[in-house]
């Protein structure tokens, strides 16, 4: 049954909030009413920050993560080990690994994983740019940190076949993460140990 609102302005905000993942109508209403109880500058700051994010956000030309400029803060940090590249599905996985404080290399965000059922193939991902990065000759290790799913394993194997003739060492995070789990849902201690205890990738079925 459609809810009845006393204000069309409130209804519009609730409808927009329900577009966000995991936000139902009741949660959206609670958030909208909470904002109304705050000083006006709180709502203004939130609205302006969202508009600024949408209009000004960029993607790092080096690793393809979300960035404020052409190069993200991680890639431009001289204290990061530029020769070690951790390959992740998206920015959520990058942030999950960063939160462990156990990794000091850089990243490469694929922007997804190979999934024939969803029509996503290698050409739809940032795989060619990863290969180009390796050919530059400065990368010594590629860490495959993709989800422990069929699609993740398929992508791992494709990357392995693409890179196995290059001089880089190809490793994968230790399987302390349960099969089928997404990295951003894994606790920081387990994920951190998986990074530290990474193993040389042997290919599928080995």
Summarize the structure.
With 206 residues, the protein is an alpha/beta fold.
CATH topology of the largest domain: the name is Dna Topoisomerase Vi A Subunit, Chain: A, domain 2
CA-CA gap between termini: 54 Å
Looking at the structure, what is the overall shape? elongated
The CATH architecture assignment of the largest domain turns out to be 3-Layer(aba) Sandwich
Structural class, from secondary structure content? alpha/beta
CATH class of the largest domain: Alpha Beta
Beta-strand proportion: 5-15%
Please provide the ordered H/E string of secondary-structure elements: HHHEEEHEHEHEHE
Number of domains: 2
Q: Give start-end ranges of low-pLDDT stretches.
A: none
- Number of separate strands: 7
Largest sheet properties: 5 strands, mixed
Helix content: 25-40%
Nearest-integer average pLDDT: 89
Computed CA radius of gyration, to the nearest angstrom: 21 Å
Give a description of the structure.
This protein has 206 residues and is of the alpha/beta class. It has two domains: 8-56, Helicase, Ruva Protein, domain 3; 79-200, 3-Layer(aba) Sandwich (Dna Topoisomerase Vi A Subunit, Chain: A, domain 2). It is 38% helix and 13% strand. It has helices at 8-17, 25-37, 40-56, 91-98, 128-135, 150-163, 188-196, and strands at 58-59, 66-67, 81-88, 105-109, 141-144, 169-172, 199-200. The strands form two sheets. It has a five-stranded mixed β-sheet. Strands 1-2 form a two-stranded antiparallel sheet. Helix 6 (150-163) links the parallel strand 5 (141-144) and strand 6 (169-172). It starts with 7 loop residues before the first helix and ends in a 6-residue tail after the last strand.
């Amino acid at each position: 049954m459609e809810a009845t609102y006393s204000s069309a302005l409130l209804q519009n905000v609730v409808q927009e909030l329900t577009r966000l993942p995991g936000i139902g109508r009741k949660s959206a209403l609670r958030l909208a009413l909470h904002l109304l109880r705050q000083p006006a500058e709180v709502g203004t700051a939130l609205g302006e920050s969202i508009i600024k994010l949408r209009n000004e956000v960029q993607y790092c030309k080096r690793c393809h993560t979300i960035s404020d400029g052409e190069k993200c803060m991680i890639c431009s940090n001289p204290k990061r080990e530029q020769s070690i590249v951790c390959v992740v599905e998206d920015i959520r996985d990058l942030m999950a690994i960063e939160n462990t404080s156990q990794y000091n290399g850089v990243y490469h965000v694929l922007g997804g994983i190979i999934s024939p059922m969803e029509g996503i193939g290698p050409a739809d991902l940032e795989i060619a740019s990863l290969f180009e990065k390796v050919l530059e000759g400065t990368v010594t290790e590629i860490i495959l940190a993709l989800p422990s799913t069929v699609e993740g394993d398929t992508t791992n194997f494709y990357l392995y076949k693409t890179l196995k003739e290059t001089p880089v060492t190809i490793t994968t995070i230790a399987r302390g993460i349960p099969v089928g789990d997404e990295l951003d849902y894994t606790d920081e201690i387990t994920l951190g140990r998986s990074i530290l205890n990474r193993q040389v990738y042997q290919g599928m079925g080995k």
